[in-house]
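for the recovery benchmark. tokens below, seq after
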């Protein structure tokens, strides 16, 4: 068995959907090495030994793979944001899609023959409309991976250029404050940049960080959804996926724990009359409102946070069982939690009809998966 801190050479044979490259140690165990590409011949140092796998630190790329590319960012590998700038984008996308399909297979769902739409990013750079930074006497920067040590930056290669243009003035402001601070920069749809200091996450209201991919997701659901009496939008945020569909339904109920704050950003006067926002925990709301809609015809969108529906899913299924809902869209940004939710829905009598994948986060391991299900 390899001891920690031992150094040795190996060849990377694959890349895992969690980010690191994959190889085998002399004993045949899986070795995960961040920052590597399939085909790399590398020298590594063992950092963690488990019964079934080993984690190792990359020391040197002895012979680079043809799938390795030069990272654009000068702090790549130090900053905690991007994991895959060293990989060709086509490989990034293939790994994401195969990872989602593998997550489904692990929970007993074979998706090989299902209709599937794929939406890789047309440009995998300069897409983020919002970034969160830390400020201080050093200027501004991002946390390094797995720590609160800040890596100073002068630009972010995946941020919109409007945000990069705003960095110098905000760097000066951070230095003037001369204290640890949090900065959120956001560019609006009209191109205006706003800065928020020392407030919570998404202080100006949650918004998907990739506008072009978000439009594709909205369009895909709009194309697939069947009009009806009611649309339920669970974990609906500011109505990102439901407001554009309100003209196709008699009533829209959007439920989110932060709906009250989000409505302040939208402005109540711009909401369609048939849309109602409910500021509530989704599971509790579903338990209290099982009979909210009993007329025939309807659809539901479920777009939970990264950890999935979790304990709220039984209440959601109970609501769906007593409702008119016949079509369901399950959206997720983590393939494992998304696959678990889809599997539980299938076990409750829903049939998986088709899938779609959207790359909201190029250069990282994250992306959006969508399953369309119908009531059996």
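predicted aa per position
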């Amino acid at each position: 068995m390899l001891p920690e801190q031992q150094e040795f050479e190996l060849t990377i044979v694959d890349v895992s959907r969690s980010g690191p490259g994959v190889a085998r140690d002399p004993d045949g165990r899986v070795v995960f090495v961040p920052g590597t590409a399939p085909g790399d011949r590398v020298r590594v140092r063992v950092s963690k030994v488990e019964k079934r796998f080993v984690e190792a630190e990359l020391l040197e790329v002895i012979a680079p793979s043809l799938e390795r590319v030069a990272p654009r960012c000068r702090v790549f590998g130090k900053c905690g944001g991007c994991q895959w700038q060293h990989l060709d984008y086509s490989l990034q996308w293939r790994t994401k899609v195969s990872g989602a399909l593998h997550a489904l297979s692990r929970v007993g769902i074979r998706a090989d023959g299902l209709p599937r739409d794929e939406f890789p990013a047309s440009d995998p750079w300069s897409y983020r409309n919002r970034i969160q930074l830390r400020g201080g006497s050093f200027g501004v920067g991002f946390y390094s991976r797995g720590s609160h040590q800040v890596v100073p930056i002068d630009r972010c290669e995946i941020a919109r250029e409007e945000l990069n243009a705003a960095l110098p003035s905000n760097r000066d402001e951070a230095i003037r404050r001369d204290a640890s601070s949090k900065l959120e920069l956001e560019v609006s749809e009209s191109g205006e940049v706003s800065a928020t200091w020392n407030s919570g996450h998404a202080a100006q209201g949650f918004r998907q960080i990739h506008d072009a991919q978000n439009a594709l997701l909205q369009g895909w659901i709009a194309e697939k959804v069947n009009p009806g009496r009611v649309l339920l939008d669970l974990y609906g945020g500011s109505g990102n996926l439901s407001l554009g569909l309100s003209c196709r339904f008699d009533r829209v109920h959007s439920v989110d724990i932060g709906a009250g704050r989000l409505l302040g950003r939208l402005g109540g006067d711009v909401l369609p009359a048939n849309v109602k926002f409910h500021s509530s925990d989704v599971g509790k709301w579903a338990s209290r409102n099982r009979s909210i809609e009993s007329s025939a015809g309807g659809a539901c969108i479920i777009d939970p946070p990264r950890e999935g529906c979790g304990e709220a899913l039984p209440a959601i299924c109970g609501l769906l069982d007593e409702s008119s809902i016949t079509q369901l869209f399950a959206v997720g940004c983590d393939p494992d939690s998304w696959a678990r939710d889809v599997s539980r829905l299938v076990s409750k009598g829903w049939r998986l009809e088709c899938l779609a994948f959207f790359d909201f986060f190029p250069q990282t391991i994250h992306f959006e998966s969508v399953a369309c299900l119908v009531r059996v």
